[in-house]
Amino acid sequence: MSRSYIAFSAAVLALTATQSAQAEICADGVVCASNPAGMVSAIQALGYKASLDKDSSGDPKIISSASGYDYDIYFYDCNNHLNCSSIQFFVSFTKDSANSEMLANQWNLKKRMGKMAFDPADGSINLQYDLSTSGGLNKTNFKDVVGWWDSTLGALHTFFAEHPAK
User: Fold this and answer.
1) Gap between the Cα atoms of 111 and 106, Å rounded
2) Are the CB atoms for 58 and 109 separated by under 8 Å?
3) What is the percentage of the chain residues whose pLDDT exceeds 90?
């Protein structure tokens, strides 16, 4: 092989690697899990509080609230705690005598957004809403996502009132 062919091949590989790394960067005007600070700004622009933190494994986490509930946004599919590609809105309710698998199933049968799960280990009920942000969400779509989550949290008030603890 000639030296020029080897040099050319190395340059192509370097360019491809650079383009792959740049593909993970969130483009202007969209909201992506690969840009947690941008997601915080987008949530704040919608009128909600939001602050950036880290979860127990070191991945980004956003702390926020809506409809009277504090919740977290966890970041998934991260590469060394960076360039994440999906998120999970998450709220947990501690042990209560009404919490059960049956209660979670009643929610899930009637609600499309936000899946509820009962954790028998600690008696908690968790509500989560997962989505991929690969390629980015435009601001209108992200506003819709946050709106659905807020609406879902709002529906919890009614649901819990209809299923009170004994």
Assistant:
1) 9
2) no
3) 61
Count of domains for the chain: 1
Would the pTM count as exceeding 0.85?
A: no
The three-state secondary structure class of 150 is helix
Please state, as a whole number, how many other Cβ atoms lie within 10 Å of the Cβ of residue 150.
19
Share of the chain above pLDDT 70, in %: 84
Residue 23 is assigned to a structural domain of this protein: no
Contact predicate 61/51, CB 8 Å: no
Q: What is the CATH number of the domain that holds 117?
A: 3.30.1460.70
Q: What is the dihedral of CA 107, 119, 163, 148, to 10 degrees?
A: -40
User: Contact, 59 vs 33, CB < 8 A?
Assistant: no
Q: How far is CA 29 from the centre of its chain?
A: 18
The verdict on residue 76 lying in a domain is: yes
What are the CB-based long-range contacts (under 8 Å, 24+) for 104-112? 106/163, 107/159, 111/152, 111/155
Q: CA torsion angle for 152, 155, 159, 164 (degrees, to 10)? A: 100
Least confident of 92-101, 105-114, 121-130, 144-153: 92-101
